[in-house]
Amino acid sequence: AVKRKLEKLAYARLMLAFSDTVNDGAESTSVVCSTSDHKLLVGSQDNLLTGALAASTLADAREILAGWQNYNNEPLNLDKLPMALVVHPAHGDLARRLVGSPQHTQSVAGAVGATGAQINPMNTSVNPERSITVTESAYCTESSGTDNDAWFLICKPPQTPLKLWVPTPPSLEIMRDAQNRNWSISVVFEAKAYWRAPVDGIVGSNPG
């Protein structure tokens, strides 16, 4: 129950990436996943896509992390870090094919197999420097519960900008219900999901 609650809490914050604002390190605020809203010493950068999950959009997300800079315009090389491709289970198989298949398959000709296939640069056996793990959760959906097309390419801890604060370990309370001749068991804990500022290490796509 605690694990499920923490997962729900983290994904609720993740799905607000298209509206949550944080300090961008330039004495102003920016939306976590936004277009041209992350100010730099010279220029700006964006980490928002609008396309559905596909080989091309995943490549775009990786390129954004590869070119991401700190405020002083210094490259962070985030694409060299372990990353997670976060999707709703409806897109889990597609996500695994995109990061796990040695090839992109453009078409299939009967029993002959793939035709027009290309080497998949996202596959770790092809490119060991790129480590992408697919993470699925039914909580990866809009608040309405009907839109599950959003997806994220996000750096894993410790670089991830999405943090979970748990100040004390969960405690177990067991109370006797004498009237009903029963026992009541509850778990008490504090937790908060929040964004680290400035936001480095996440690209979000919201096809809408």
Index terms:
208 residues; alpha+beta; 5-stranded mixed β-sheet; two-stranded antiparallel sheet; 3 helices; globular
Description:
The protein is of the alpha+beta class. Helices cover 16% and strands 30% of the residues. It contains three helices and 17 strands. The strands form seven sheets. Strands 5-17-12-6-11 form a five-stranded mixed beta sheet, covered by helices on one side. A hairpin with a 4-residue loop joins strand 3 and strand 4. The radius of gyration is 20 Å and the shape is globular. The two termini are 31 Å apart. About 5% of the residues have low confidence.
Main sheet, how many strands, which sense, barrel? 5 strands, mixed
What is the percent of helical residues? 10-25%
Mean pLDDT: 84
Shape: globular
Listing every helix as H and every strand as E from the N terminus to the C terminus, the arrangement reads HEEEEEHEHEEEEEEEEEEE
Structural class: alpha+beta
Beginning-to-end CA distance, first to last residue: 31 Å
Q: What's the total count of β strands?
A: 17
Number of helices: 3
Strand content: 25-35%
- Poorly predicted runs: 105-109, 111-116
Strand order of the largest sheet: 5-17-12-6-11
Radius of gyration: 20 Å
